[in-house]
Amino acid sequence: MTAPHMSAVSTPPPSVPPLLDVRDLNAYYGQSHVLHGVNLHVQPGEIVSLIGRNGAGKTTTLRSIMGALRSRTGSVTFDGQDILRLPSNRVAARGLAWVPEERAIMSTLTVRENLELPPARPGGWTTERAYEAFPVLRERGHHPGSKLSGGEQQMLAIVRVLRSAPRLLLLDEPSEGLAPVIVQRIGDIIQKLRTEGLSVLLVEQNLKFATRLADRHYVFVDGQIVDEVSRADAVARREDLLKYLSV
Ligand SMILES: Nc1ncnc2c1ncn2[C@@H]1O[C@H](COP(=O)(O)OP(=O)(O)OP(=O)(O)O)[C@@H](O)[C@H]1O
């Protein structure tokens, strides 16, 4: 398989304006030019995955969208508003929520304290709702974050950001290192959230998880998107997708 050149990636014009629209995004770590003209969009209510090998630029794309990485050019609009120049706290206030790979929870605080620290916004998840979605968090309510398993930390990290009632959830490898039953549960919750109107941009290396959830997949190679695969084509193109991920 040869990776199609960037220009071969064709996105049909969306019938409604995208919720997130990234155009010609270039990003840099110091002198190192890491993203090269990334174009992607997420429609309202859509789940989109970014897949590719380690170091391909997926996490950098999320960091660039959230404003955690400042050294970038191009255009990032959310709900029609330019967010590229906003500090990350103001990006979050617009309705984007990011769960980084390292699952930013507060390790010295208990599960309940982690849940209650960011006050829930109107429409955001309450502590009770978090416990209903993931009953194990209720059982662990008084345990410090540092004593949770990887799966419990991932659940806690997701429900924490849902307290802010985001419109777009950015998830960085939510299935990484987790037992299949936990991966299944997290997938169920993401699907449920979509039925409630949430959009999701998902970085994944677990193809089974990504293809179960995502409506479209963008394939990253060396800081560029080289292919775009719809849910309808993902089964027929499974071998291509596996090759993109293999080392
Ligand atoms: N803080 C940093 N400083 C310098 N270079 C970095 C930094 N973080 C990432 N890079 C480099 O940027 C490139 C893209 O990395 P990125 O983390 O975005 O890839 P990725 O596709 O998310 O892969 P992974 O799954 O390994 O995180 C890689 O070459 C990586 O080495």
UniProtKB/TrEMBL annotation:
<keyword id="KW-0067">ATP-binding</keyword>
<dbReference type="InterPro" id="IPR003439">
    <property type="entry name" value="ABC_transporter-like_ATP-bd"/>
</dbReference>
<keyword id="KW-0029">Amino-acid transport</keyword>
<protein>
    <submittedName>
        <fullName>ABC transporter ATP-binding protein</fullName>
    </submittedName>
</protein>
<dbReference type="GO" id="GO:0016887">
    <property type="term" value="F:ATP hydrolysis activity"/>
</dbReference>
<dbReference type="InterPro" id="IPR017871">
    <property type="entry name" value="ABC_transporter-like_CS"/>
</dbReference>
<keyword id="KW-0813">Transport</keyword>
<keyword id="KW-0547">Nucleotide-binding</keyword>
<dbReference type="InterPro" id="IPR027417">
    <property type="entry name" value="P-loop_NTPase"/>
</dbReference>
<dbReference type="InterPro" id="IPR003593">
    <property type="entry name" value="AAA+_ATPase"/>
</dbReference>
<dbReference type="GO" id="GO:0015658">
    <property type="term" value="F:branched-chain amino acid transmembrane transporter activity"/>
</dbReference>
<dbReference type="InterPro" id="IPR052156">
    <property type="entry name" value="BCAA_Transport_ATP-bd_LivF"/>
</dbReference>
<dbReference type="GO" id="GO:0005524">
    <property type="term" value="F:ATP binding"/>
</dbReference>
<dbReference type="GO" id="GO:0015807">
    <property type="term" value="P:L-amino acid transport"/>
</dbReference>
<comment type="similarity">
    <text>Belongs to the ABC transporter superfamily.</text>
</comment>
<feature type="domain" description="ABC transporter">
    <location>
        <begin position="20"/>
        <end position="247"/>
    </location>
</feature>
<dbReference type="Pfam" id="PF00005">
    <property type="entry name" value="ABC_tran"/>
</dbReference>
